[in-house]
Specification:
alpha+beta
């Protein structure tokens, strides 16, 4: 049995521990933790780690928000335990119906008394010295939003895995509006003197962060029109940067997190919640770049509700354009509109109804590119043909090394990922091997000598000669 007060290794670099590293005038925080049917020991370990590893004067309170749990141990038993262990330091707020993470966090924020809000998940463990580095950055600049480094707690063994500051990653996103992790770009490495210094990050993962309550409210908090969870982290990231703030990952602050194998949320039937949230996000914040997301979802925007007051927040704060954000905060992101073609890649042979079709995610890495009847809905049939001859979706490229045509992370060095498209012949030639992309059957993609066959003719959607 693992203790609910177990000790953890101290994952901080020496740089973080220097005596005058942090200001002595830090404001206290309310730590907001939402839970729904969380395991008893996991929730207790979360709260104990926060209370035991935070200076008492900096921890104003822990606000536990029960998102309508129905497990018996989370009712009177939890209240008795928290009262006995922590007195008034921990308070429990009960939602009257199932709200989902986003609205549960808004409920927690509304009941928080301290000037800084720190949001954590209910299956985490804060490491030694986790809090001061976060509060220090907000004290120096109240519009800074800060995230700890998220270490991994093994879902089965609860082993705590951590790395040093050189392993820190930053957040990004792809044009499906999904969060992604990336290594720190060179321009950001050059800006900093030590690897443990705060890092600018284009986006945040969203589960764990601290923000001035005043700044959170000024930004319009979370969009209350968002349902359950999903997309709220990108919305907060975009508007933080675009509306005068900045977003940092703090390598001196470590919080372990159990990454669960499945979501505890029961999604409403007949509503694609994540898509609805993402469309609201795109409509309000992404300007003309929203089109790249809409192409991925076949322009099926659905009913995304009223966004008038979200747009008025952006107007009132005179926030910058999404183009400014891409140019200045995330210049590494591949922009589909700068490609020579984007959309489906259709073969003209065997009836002309077969398209390149692959998930193109990291899980698909080293798997063969598939074929499927063309459906015109984007998704796994949405590709870009870059100016440098890559057939890509976001950060994954079509790659040929002599066996199957594969999905592989784009490396920007051409080589096996360099393709030549002749739109008059319809030929897609692999530059190193001089072979052509061919369909052997409606299910099988091959590379063959270029012979002008109908099964070697391809049409790239929205192709333009540069």
């Amino acid at each position: 049995m693992i203790s609910v007060k177990r000790s953890l290794p101290d994952p901080r670099d020496q740089w973080c521990k220097e005596s005058d590293r942090y200001l002595t005038t830090l404001k206290p925080t309310s730590v907001v933790i939402c839970f729904h049917n969380e395991a008893w020991s996991v929730l207790l370990r979360t709260v104990h780690s926060v209370v035991d590893r935070s200076p008492p004067e900096l921890l104003g309170e822990v606000v536990l928000v029960d998102d309508f749990s129905d497990m018996e141990h989370l009712k009177a038993q939890l209240e008795d335990y928290m009262k006995l262990q922590f007195g008034d330091k921990v308070k429990i707020i009960r939602a009257q119906r199932r709200e989902g993470l986003i609205r549960a966090r808004l409920l927690g924020a509304a009941n928080a008394k301290s000037p800084i809000l720190t949001f954590l998940d209910s299956h985490v463990e804060a490491a030694t010295g986790w809090l001061e580095p976060l509060l220090d950055r907000i004290e120096r600049n109240w519009t800074t939003v800060v995230c700890p480094v998220i270490d991994v707690i093994d879902d089965d063994t609860l082993e705590f895995h951590y790395g040093d500051s050189k392993a820190t990653s930053v957040g990004g996103f792809d044009w499906n509006l999904q969060f992604t992790w990336h290594s720190i770009p060179e321009r950001e490495r050059n800006r900093r003197k030590a690897s443990a210094e705060p890092v600018f990050s284009p986006t945040m993962a969203g589960g764990l962060f601290a923000i001035s309550k005043e700044f959170f409210e000024r930004l319009g908090a979370y969009d209350p029109g968002f349902d359950i969870w999903g997309g709220e982290n990108l919305e907060l990231s975009f508007k933080t940067w675009m509306c005068g703030g900045r977003l940092e990952i703090i390598p001196c602050s470590h919080v372990g997190h159990i990454f669960r194998k499945r979501s505890p949320y029961k999604w409403r039937q007949g509503v694609n919640v994540l898509r609805r949230n993402s469309v609201r996000l795109a409509e309000v914040w992404m300007d003309e770049y929203a089109e790249y997301y809409y192409q991925r979802i076949g322009h099926d925007l659905g009913n995304y509700g009223d966004i008038t007051d979200r747009k008025s927040i952006r107007e009132k704060l005179q926030c910058k354009s999404f183009k400014w954000y891409l140019d200045n905060i995330y210049p590494e992101l591949f922009i589909p509109g700068e490609a020579l073609a984007h959309g489906e890649i259709r073969n003209l042979g065997l009836g002309g109804q077969t398209c390149l079709d692959s998930p193109a995610t990291k899980r698909q890495m080293n798997k063969a590119v598939g074929l499927y009847p063309c459906h015109g809905q984007g998704g796994n049939q949405y590709w870009s043909f870059s100016k440098t001859g890559e057939i890509r979706r976001d950060e994954m490229c079509v790659d040929y090394a002599g066996q199957d045509v594969m999905i592989y992370p784009c490396h920007g060095s051409m080589g096996n990922q360099h393709w030549l498209y002749d739109d008059e012949k319809g030929e897609v030639k692999h530059s190193p091997s001089h072979k052509c992309l061919t369909i052997a059957t409606k299910e099988k993609l091959t590379m063959e000598p270029c012979q002008g066959l109908e099964t070697q003719k391809w049409k790239f959607q929205n192709y333009r000669k540069d």
